[in-house]
Design a protein that fits this description.
With about 140 residues, this protein is an alpha+beta fold. Helix content is about 20%, strand content about 40%. Strands 1, 2, 3, 4, 5 and 6 form a 6-stranded antiparallel beta sheet that branches. InterPro entries: AIG2-like_dom (IPR009288), GGCT-like (IPR013024), GGCT-like_sf (IPR036568).
């Protein structure tokens, strides 16, 4: 299934993995949001956890068709995701993103915290109340 990606952390413009993974592989990048997720601050990167009513800010990234498979593989490796692996930190799932520009809903891949990780975060993880990881001051939390 060829879908755009909803990114909310280190893959956003200006963040450390944007150029490393997305440069030259995208046809379009646009601000978007995704409801039903809450962000938790991780060790240098965020985790999205399913939470009804919450909203996360990010970017909707559409890969260039000829780069899609390569980008999908690269992002799966970045997120330590392998289909069906019980040791995944993240799961890649399809959820609806909404374009900021016109409110259009778009199905997209998003990496969310795997079940065990999500359970630990809900118990003792630091929530990013704004839903926007790039708006947080991470320098004071992760030296």
């Amino acid at each position: 299934m060829t879908l755009p990606f909803f990114v909310y952390g280190t893959l956003r413009p200006g963040e450390p993995n944007h150029d490393r993974f997305l440069r030259g592989r995208t046809a379009r990048e646009e601000p978007a949001r995704m409801t039903g997720l809450v962000l938790y601050d991780g060790p240098g990167y965020p985790y999205a956890v399913e939470e009804p009513g919450s909203v996360v800010s990010g970017e909707l990234v559409t890969a260039r068709p000829e780069a899609y498979d390569e980008l999908l593989d690269a992002l799966d490796r970045l997120e330590d995701y392998a289909p069906g692996d019980p040791h995944n930190l993240y799961e890649r799932v399809v959820r609806e993103a909404v374009r900021q520009s016109d409110g259009t809903p778009v199905p997209a891949w998003v990496y969310i915290a795997a079940f065990g990780v999500a359970a630990r975060l809900r118990t003792r993880g630091p929530v990013i109340a704004s839903g926007d990881w790039t708006a947080t001051d991470r320098r004071t939390r992760h030296p």
